[in-house]
Every structure is written in structure tokens, then in C-alpha cells.
Design brief:
- Chain B: One of its GO terms (molecular function) is siderophore uptake transmembrane transporter activity.
- Chain B: This is SusC/RagA family TonB-linked outer membrane protein.
- The structure holds two protein chains of two kinds.
- Chain A is about 45% helix and about 10% strand.
- Chain A is mainly α.
- In chain A, a hairpin with a 5-residue loop joins strand 7 (about 335-340) and strand 8 (about 345).
- In chain A, helix 9 packs antiparallel against helix 10 (about 240-250).
- The longest helix of chain A has 26 residues, at about 130-155.
- In chain B, the strands form ten sheets. Chain B has a 22-stranded antiparallel beta barrel. In chain B, strands 10-15-16-13-14 form a five-stranded mixed beta sheet.
- The longest helix of chain B is centred in the first third of the chain and has 23 residues, at about 1-25.
- Chain B is globular, with a radius of gyration of 33 Å.
- Classes of the chains: A mainly alpha, B mainly beta.
- At the A-B interface, helix 1, strand 1, helix 2, helix 5 and helix 16 of A face helix 7, strand 22, strand 24, strand 25 and strand 26 of B.
- Strand 1 (about 30) of chain A pairs antiparallel with strand 31 (about 680-685) of chain B, so a sheet runs across the interface.
Amino acid sequence: MKKYILISWAILIFTSACNDDLLDTEPETSIPESIAFSTPAKILAQTNNLYKQLQNQSFYGGRFIVFNEQRADQFGQNDGNAATGSAVWNQNVASTNDFVNNVWAVGYAAINASNILISKMNETTVISKEQAKNYIAEAKFVRAFCYFSLIQTYAKPYNQDKNSLGLPLRLTPVTTSGNNDLARSSVEMVYTQILKDLDEAETDLPVSYTTPLLNTSRAKKCTAIALKTRVLLVQNNFERVIAESKKIVSPTLPFQYTEGTLTQKLETNYTAIFGGNYTGTEAVFSIPFANSTTETPSAQYSLAYNYLAQPIIFLAAAGIVSDPAFNSGTDARSALIGTSAANQKVLKKFSVTTAPFRDYVPVIRYAEILLNYAEAAAHINDLETSKALLKAVRNRADPGYVFPENEMATKEALITTIQKERDIELLGEGFRLMDLQRKVQTLPAKKGSIGTAPLVLPTSSNYIWPIPSGEISTNHLMVPNP
Amino acid sequence: MLLEKHLKLTLCFLFLLTAQLYAQQQNLKGKIVDAKDNIPLIGATVQSETEETITNEDGEFVLQNQKLPFTVKINYIGYAAQEIVIRSFDILKVKLLKDSNQLDEVLISSGYLSQKKTEFSGSVSTISAKQLQNRPSTSFDQLLGGQGTGIDVIQSTSVLNNTPVIRVRGLNTITSGLFPLIVVDGVAVFTGSLGGFVGNNPLSAINPNDIASVDVLKDASASAIYGSRAANGVMVITTKKGKKGKTRFNYNSWFSRSTPYNLPKLLNAEDYTMIKNEALVNAGKAPGFFLSKNADGSTVNTNWYDVAYEPGYSSNHNINISGANETTQYYFSLDYTNQNSFIKNNTFQNYMTRLNISHELNKFIRAGVNLSYSNAKNAGPNTGAVAGNTLSSSTYNTEYITNEPLGRMTYVLPPNVPVYNPDGSYSIQNGISVGYGANIPSIIGTINAYNLAMVQELDLTTSISKSLLGNVYAEFDIAKKVTFRTSFGLNTIGLENKLFLNPIHGGGASYNGVATNIATDLSRTDWANTISYKNSFNENHNFMILAGYERIKTTLESWGASQSNVTDTYYKNYQGSYANISPIGNDLSENALISYFTNLNYNYKNKYFLTLNYRIDGLSALSEGNKYGNFGGGSVSWNLMEESFFNGSKLKGFLNNLKLRASYGIVGNSEIGNYPAIGTYSSSTYGGAPTLGYSQTANPDLKWETSSKLDLGLNFAMLNNRISVEFDYYNNKIRDLILKTPQALSAGIPNNYINENVGGMYNTGYEIGINALAVTTGNFNWNVNLNLSTLKNKVTSLASDVFVPSVFGVQNMTRVGYSIGSVFAVPNKGVNPENGQMIFINSQGKEVQYNHIGSPKWTYLDGNAAPAIDNYKDGVIQGPSLPKLFGGFNNTFSYKNFVLAVNLTFAQGNKLYNGTRATNSDQRYFNNGEFIKNRWTTPGQITDVQKLYYGDNVSAGFSFSSTSKVEDGSFVKLKNISLGYTVPLEASFLKNTFSSVYVYLQGNNLYTFTKYRGSDPEVSINGNSINSGKDQNVPPNAQVYTLGLNIGF
């Protein structure tokens, strides 16, 4: 009898154990794809995520800006370790360099995130059509911004050869395999797409958001216009630079843009741009950081660590730091130059040198718009407008300064002066390389404490970065840079 | 009268004569004991031509009415038989040697059931307790190398309790789990590395002293019962049980001393200063390196090895008590180990206990419990040798090259700077640089190396694990010959990982101090129910059927935080006060496996054997419709010795055993992550606002990765079982490999991969294991074991190359047509004798040379500008990173009370990337190897070291992989020599106290015969990974001397 009880008990266990949902597990710390766009809050979070992609430490969170400065001529390299980008500074990166792979990958991850959002918003019923259009416009801004960053890094400058190979132009979402192969579009086609996206973004973006932080950290109408002035300047399309600039720069002093509650203009106090709440009137678009290492870059990726704490790169003595503006004492910008323990000049714009490295990264400042406008105006011989804009930027930092006549006398002199002002004003913000390359100029040789980096001719293969190995090995239609 | 007298004398004589005759037929008395521990052997058979007897409880016997001279045969199960010619009736003492060749009685456990080896058709390597005992280690897996065919174990670093690389018949996957399944008393245990940069192998919770045997199931027949978990082989561990007889106490202990073995020779301060200044001058700069003076006027000449390393002393104590009566068996053990590596501050402590009890409740019901608990603490500096946490899959170490690790610091730190200031404080320049001494910072640039002494002392990684492992089971004989068994197993690990970085100097400086604590709970429950039926018909048809159901659930829960910006330098732990805190290491995941399996074993007259296995596994990780997979295998074997045509054959007297085996089956790999098939979005914040971003691409079609394994084998034993040979051919084909398939970066897919079934590869090879009792005489015995395995791995299909791009080059490449993770490098043609520049050959076949200060830097030999060398485009596969042949050669000599064991391991045919030599060739402030003195200095000079330019990190294979650093990894290692002595107790005062006393002296890693120029051809930075064979900046391996003691009561 006992035996039969046991047997039936065993059978009972067997059968009861088999009928449960042990195998139906779901992740508890991430959200399944099926419901990722199911509520207004999730969609807003998806939109915020586009900027999160830009915030990546390899991209505008810090390192991409440092790479651009390492490739240009204003900084000398202190640290010979490849992990600190010594090969970048030495103009000697290979396709297998992880920085070369990372910047490309992060840019395209943002592009795919934008493409996914655009596609989802075209069919969403969770939020209003109006709201969906806003989000699509933000996605187009991010997509354009990424393509613009990548085309300048991995393709020949537009002004050098707009018919040369540009980037694979991905405009639809990728959520499955089998999408590896895509050929490069021409440089011109990529620029056309960038401007198309920005034009469409301008139409549908809101004028402003509810808080200064949101105005600074998300794209609004004037952000798209501002970026267009940069893109068009790189194309030497001066007429359109002026046309776009006029939308957001008042014709008379003080140069500013006001719409609704939003005002964008130069900060009176230059140093205020790089501190405080980082969301003043000059910040058109910045990468913000919450005060926690969940968002902030790690040490080697942050601007403050590279420029100041370590410093991994210092201001090359022969570079713009030798300009009187940085040595006069009357120019507020000289206050952001310091001297390191090794007696090197260093940049102090980003001053939070202990982790979390939470200095906001300025991406578009009102001063840049004025200088873009000034340069375009000079090119079309509107020297008065140009001078006025230039002076506005200079005199904000050094109110008493008067430009020598010969520096503004001719169109050429004025353009040279504007470039110098850009170098001074935007030092360390990642513009110098773009300025050299849009003018198809040689990247000059430069001295660091790890040696001398050679000059790079526009015809040299290392004038631009190689297409990354991770793309070449998987995309069979990809043609590497020569 | 006289006659009478004569008669008497005659009678007397006759009597004496008879007595004499009687005296010639006497009884032989004797005693049979174990040769090793002198324990009496009860029930041994003693046989002469006329008589046969067995030994009693004290191992004694009497063989009656024997006539000199005569021969006795002594047989005892599990021991080598002995034949002794007896020439006197003195009391005979015979020592029998345990015989690993005795196939008959070796039991093979598949975890679900045990079988005699003779009835087992699969391919298995069995490692006995004897092969594991008295060998200092932190975990048993470290001891398996060279102990059986098909098992390749590599001790890739000397960090205590670091997880060794274990491979059973090569690498069987690319991105899924690489560890073999390890099953202890029926419970699949956690494997991997759990303690961050300090290692922490969960297998250290299994006390080697408690292991009765390790059965490594290599082919599909043996392992198919494990279905989807068997692709990497299965190790079935059976722990010790009590044996009938009186209670046994054993005490084992050892003390050891470890030192670094074969450190690369580096420059002293004077040579360093000379070499570095030469490089500066060559680069057009002024000399910047100068010797500095100590307070006593002597020149500073710091040997950073001495800062990092000092002899480490370790000890281990183990007690076990075991016994059994008619109904109950018990085994209880306690173990404490306290180990110190030669790496200062690298320590390992472990408290372990085990209790195994089994009990017969009545004739029908048996029940038992096997339970062990371990509390282990691993601590140490970050050495760079451990990649970080990994539960099972392939690792890629990026840590070795960062600033923090100790290994790198010993190689790069300048010898001409002091460790301490005259006031005794650490000599530091700032938060990240060691004090410059007399070197001039503005000329030499940043020394991005910390003061090793300071960070090694203050920055510690700690990993504490509390592991519970065991099962409870019950067996019911529910009918005649039908047994139902239910077993509930549990493995939980409570883990606490801590990292503290000081705020003053090192990796913590830019954070003003960081303290990170992460707590993790790992838990696995395993409930297995089987029903078995065993019967024989007509004594010819013997079979056993097993059917079972099993459910396994694994959960992982972890949480943690990182505090930074310490409010006062007083705090050195997480619980102190800090200004910032961020979450880190949060995870919550689970997976489950539900299985139904059956097994049939059949043999006909012990002549023909058949085994069939079938298992259905359902895995939660796969998507609906693909969850269940079918696995199975079968084998046949043929015991030729039982054939009648062998009877009377001459072979019969020569061969003791001859068996042919063949097996085939399909198994899978379930270590594919918890949610590989679904698409997910992950949350974070941007400027404090919530974000939701694409984090994994779905692949609803993801299905099981399967391996088909073919094995053909032959076993034979000959010369009275003195020589036994096991031979196997195997071929494992892996199809539908679940691969993290690289996607075009421009697709913008999360992490740039999608889990897909796209790859294929195979492993094939031969294995031969030979055991021989080369010499057996009364006093001297020599046992030889040779095991040898070959391996050929080839990747047959992939979507695209699998590799990791890096600013430090690509050293491993997985590419179709080649062995997985092959060593990869750009061809180097040596130094151009004309100008001292390194010449490389690019993908066009053109020679290009590199001048670090040139403009352009890369030129053809005619001086025209050349495109820079590109590691991926110009790199060429140099050879496999897996050895083509490996194994062990183990000798045991015993003479009277002495036992000498000499064990060698060897490997042949693999390539290594000697990245440490690249580090030691680097022309930044890095210290260099002595070999750098052969640098090129004058035109026409033939050398392999280029002209030195300060800052050059390209020429010597540091920034990209160069064939100048690719070397042959073949070696023969004198792994272990041990000399033991069994103290004779009979004559001593200890006689009544102890039953056996054994002492031994042992040396480990004594010498390596190799052409490899690095410190050790087994060193590897990637641990258990497809990216093997890369040696860079890893601390050397240890040489260990041990004194040990075993006492039996």
C-alpha cells in the first residue's frame, strides 16, 4: 500500500511540475521592443534618447571634440599612450583604431535611433500629430548633425571634392540583420540630405521649450537654423549663410534672436558661458550632464581632464595662445588660460577636474553664429556688417579693444581676422580642424612633449580618417579611403 | 639390546626425517597493505598452485601447506596484481600499488547514473582523487592539466584563484559560453570569473580533497544526456563517501612558498638613462633622463619587480572523517586555506566544509544529502591579468594596457626614479605620475605610470563569495528492479565585490577617491527526477533504461554603487563619507531549462554494447516556437575478448582487454545569455530627463546552436593489465553557431551585433592515453602515464571576420578557413640595415618602412611616401592560437617507503603574440628589455632592434601587431616533482596513535623548455576566450615549493 502511495506521489510531482510558465521569462531591467513606444512618456524618453546618443563620451560628450583638436594645430600632446589619442595627434590612425571605429559607430547609432523614431512617429496614435511632428523634427536635426559630423571626419572636404565618396546614407530604420551592404553616397549628396533634414526640422521644431535646460539641451527652431549657418559655411555657400543668419541675428546691436520667451544673444560675461548653470542666453545647443557619473564621461573622455586636469594636451606655444588677446589681461578670454605644473599653457574653459566631469559641452554658441555670419558677409563684400559682427564678439570679451585698421581694411584681411577671432573665441571647442579643412589648408606640423607631429597635406591619405575596419569587414559595398 | 638400540636410533632418525619432510610443507603467513598509506587490504586474494585464501580484517592471511619454492599470486580489486616467488617461510609483507589501469572496477558517472567502465561505450577521461591530492591549488580545475586526454588546462596568470582556461577538445563556440559544464553530485555549478580584477573562480568552493573522481565526458554518447549544455564537454564530479569499516580520520596539510618564475630582464638605471637619452637625441631633442641620488649618495636604481613581488607563503589544513555501517555512510570535512601570492597583497582565504550522508531507511528507500559551504575571500591589486567578470562567455581583456595594472607598471616604470622620498613618503609627481627623480618633465613628456608601491598598497580589489552547493536525494525501489530517484540540487553564491582607489595617486586621483561595492546573488536550483529499470534476461541480455525530467532555474541579482569624491582622506571603504554616488552593476535576470531525457544501455553477454541517449531541452532564452531542442546520441562497442574465437588464441594470453567503440550524437550550447532573442530598449537619463534607447536587436528566429560529435575509439590492455591503452579519434562539427554577428557599424544596431545562427566550425583530432606499470618488483615500482591529444580547429562559415579593433592593434582574428582566434600580425621584414628603420610588408606586397620623426613617416624603400600600415588591411594570419598537440607525461616511482612523482605537461604548434616584449621595446619613457641594447646604431648593422626614436610606439609591434613579436608557443614544462615518504609506524612509538603518516616535498612549475622569449608560454591576458595566445603586461607565473603532511588515524 505504502508503495502505491509513493508511486502516485511521484506521478503527481511529475505532472504538476510540467505545466507552468518557467520558460516564459521577460527582462526586468529593460523594456521589450513591443511596448517601447506605447505611452507618451516612453516616446518622450525615446526622443530624449536621440540626444543621449550625442552625449556619448566618444562623441559630443567629450572625446570627438578632443580628437578634432588633436588633429588640428593648437594643441601639443603630453601623453604618448595610444589610449590618450597620441596616434590621433600624430596623424597616424589606422582603420583598426578603436576611436576611428567608435566615432563612426556612435554617429550611426544616433542616426538609426533617429530613423527608428521618425518611422514610429509617422504611424503613432499614442500622441497628437502635432507632437509627433515636433519629435520627427528633433530626429531630423540629430540625424543631420550626425551626418555633418561624420562627413567631415571620414570624407574629403566639400570644397576639396564634393563628388568624392561620402557616407553610406541610411535614412530608414535598421532593426534586423541583412542590412550590412550599402555603398557610399557622394559628399554632395550627403550635404544635400543634411540641409534637407535641417530645413524640415526648422519648419516643425518648437520655438522654445519650458525651461532654460530644455532650451539648451534639445533642438528648437533656431538650433536648426544655427546649424545650417555652419553647414553652409563649410560649403562656401555664403549667400545662404547670410540668409539663414538673418533669421536669428537682429540687424542692429545688440545682435540677438528673440521669439516668444526665448532670447539668444552673447553673454555679457564670457566666463559665465562655461560655468554657473551653463544655460544662459549664449548657449544655443549644449550637451548637459546630470551631476552623476551615469551621464558624465570617464576621465580620459572628458574635456576638463584632457585640457586641464592631466593635461593630456596643452596649448602649443606657437599656436593661437601666443596671440595678444590671450596675453593682454584686458581680454576676458585670457582668464581661461592657465599654466600647468610643467609650465605649459592650458585651457581652463572646462574646469570641473574631479569626476563627475559635468561641465556642459557647448556645441552651438551664439558667438559662432555671429562669426559664421561675419565671414559670409565679408566674402560677399558686405564688410560693414561683417566688421560689426566681429567687433561684437571681440568687444564682449575686451570692451575697449579696437581692431587695427589693416586687419579690417580689405575683404581678405577681414576674413583672416575673423578666422583668428574664431580660433581665439572657440579655442578647444573643436572648430579649428573644420576651419582648416573647409579652406582645404594643410594641417600644420606641431610640437608636443612626445615629439613633433608632421604636417599633413590635403592630398595626403591621413588628411581625413580611414573608414573603420568594423565597416570594411562587414559592408561589402564599402570602398575604403585611399 | 643392541638391536633395540639401533632400532631406536633408526626410529629416531626416521622420525627426524619425517619431521624434516613435514617441515618442508609449511604455512606461509603474511600481510597485504596499500603501498602508499600502509592501510591493510581486507579481502585480497592470495593464491598459490594448491591453495587460495583471502586476507582478514587486518590484511593478514595464512596460506597452508606450501612447499618451497612456490609462487603466490596476489589480487585485489583496484590494485595491480603481483606474483611473488617465495623462497622462505618468513612472514611475507606485500605492498600493493593502486592501479589506475584496472578498467573493470572503475565506475563512470554520467551524473544521472554510474556504470562500470567496461560497460561504458562513450569517450571519457577519468581523473581520480589520487591525481588531485597533495597538490596545492586554489581550485581543483587548476590541477587537471596533463591528467587526461582531450583536456587542455592553462594557468594563464598567477593571480590567486584566477579562473584557469579549461578546454575539452578545443573551442566549440565563438560567442556563446566556453566553459565545460561542471556537475557536482548532480548539480550544475556556476563557472567563470566573479571577482572583477582580482579573479575569484567559483570552482574554489569545491574542495579538491573532497573529490572522489572527475569524469570528463568528451563525446556525444557520454555527454548527450546533458543535451543542450554539453557542447563544451561535461565534467562530472563525484564527492567522497564513507566506506565500511572503522571510522577514518585524515588530516592533510601543506605549507608552500611561491616566487615569480622567469621575469623578463630589464635595463638598470644606468643603461636606461643611456638608451632613453640616445632615443631623445635621435629624435632631435636634448637628453632628458638623468640618474638621481639617494640620501646616502648612492645612485637610485629601482627594481620595480622587488616593489611588486616578494615570496608568498601559504598553508592549508584539511580534516576529514568518514565511515559507514550497514545502513549509513558519512563523510565530513573541514578545510582552511590561507594563501599569499608572490604579488604583494594578493591573498586568498577560504573556509570550507562538506557533509555527505546517505542512509538506507529500509529495503526500498534510500536517502541522502551532499552539502558543502565555502566562504572565500580574494583580495589583491589590479594586475591587468584578469579581464573582469564573466560568467561563461569569451572575454576580451582591455584592462592590461590601462594605467592601473601592476603587471604593466613593473615593465614600464623607469628604474632611475626612487620609490620613496628621503622622508619616507611615496615619491610622486602628481595624481598620475610617479616622481620624476632627476628626469626633466618638459623634455620627456608625461610619465603616465603611477608609483607602484603606493597604488599596490592603497588600491585594493576584494571579492568575497559565500557559496552553498549540494543536493538532497531519495531513491525508492518502487517495484522489483525499478527505482525512482528524486534529487534537488542548489548552488547559491553570495558575492560581494569591492574596489577602493585612493584619492591621492593613481586611478582614483581624478575622482578624489572612489569606493565601489557591488553585491550579487547567484542562484541555481536543479530538480531532477529519474526512473530506472535494470534487468537481465537469460543472463545474456542486460539492459538498463532511464527516463527523467529535470528543471533548472538560474537567477542573477546584483546591485551596487560607486562613491567618489571622498570627504576626508581617512576613509578607505565604501561606507565612508563621499560627495558623489552613482549606481553601478545593477542587474536582474533569470533563465530556465526544462528537460525530458531518456537513456538506454544494453549489452549482450558483455560482448556487444549499445547506448542511446535522447534529451529534449526547453530554454527560456529562446523565443516562442524555438525554445525546445532535440539532442541525443548513441554508441556501440564491442568487447572482442569475450568472443569465442579468441579463446585458445595466443592473443588471449597476451591481451587482457580489447574493445572497439563508436559514438555519434548531437548536443547544444545553452550559455547564450538570458534574453538573446528579443529586442529591448534600455532606460537612462539625459540632463536628468528619462531616456529610452535601443539596446538589443531582436532575432525571433534564433534557434539552438548544435554540435555533432563523432568519436571512434579503441581500448586495450595487455601483459596482465600492466599496459593499458585508450585511443580516440574525434570530430566535432558545430552548426548554426549562435554568433554575435558583427553588423556594419553604419547600420547603427546596438553594440553592432545581432545574435544569429550563422557560423560553423569543427574540431578534430586524435587522443591517446597510455598507462603502464613499467616496473613492478617487491620494492620498486614505476608507473607511467602518457596522455596526448591533437587538435585541429577550423572555422567553416561566418558572416564576416570576428575581431576587436583597438588602438593597441589586432592580435587575434577569427576568419573563415582558419583556426578560431588565430594569431594575426602585419608581416615584418626586420630592420633596414641602411637606416635602422623597421620594414613591413603591406597588403600590396610592397615593403614600407617607418621613421617616427619622418615627414612622411611611412615611405617605400626608395623614400617615396607610402600609405600607413593598417593592421586590418595589411595583417596576415600567422597560425593557430590553440596548440596542435598537447598532453601530459606522468611518472610515479615508488621504492620501499618512498614515492617520487614527476609530471610534465607539453603543448606544441601554437603561436603566441609576445606583447610584453613589445611593451619592453617601446620608446617612450618605458623601461626596456636588456635586448634593446642590440639596437641599430650604424649603417650596415644587422640587428632585429630598430634605431631608437623617443616616442616611437609603432616600430616594435605595440600600436599594431607585427610579426616581429609572433613566436612559437611550443613547450615542455616540468610541472611538478614530488617526493613523498611513508613513515614506517610498526616500529615507532606512533604505532598506536596513527594508522598512516605520509610526508612530501614538492616543486611546481620548475622549468620550462621552450623557444618562447617571454616569461611563460602559458601566460595569456584574455583568460577563457577565443582570443588566446596574447601575452602582454601579465605578471609571470609562480614557482612553488611545498612541504606537505598526511596523517591517518
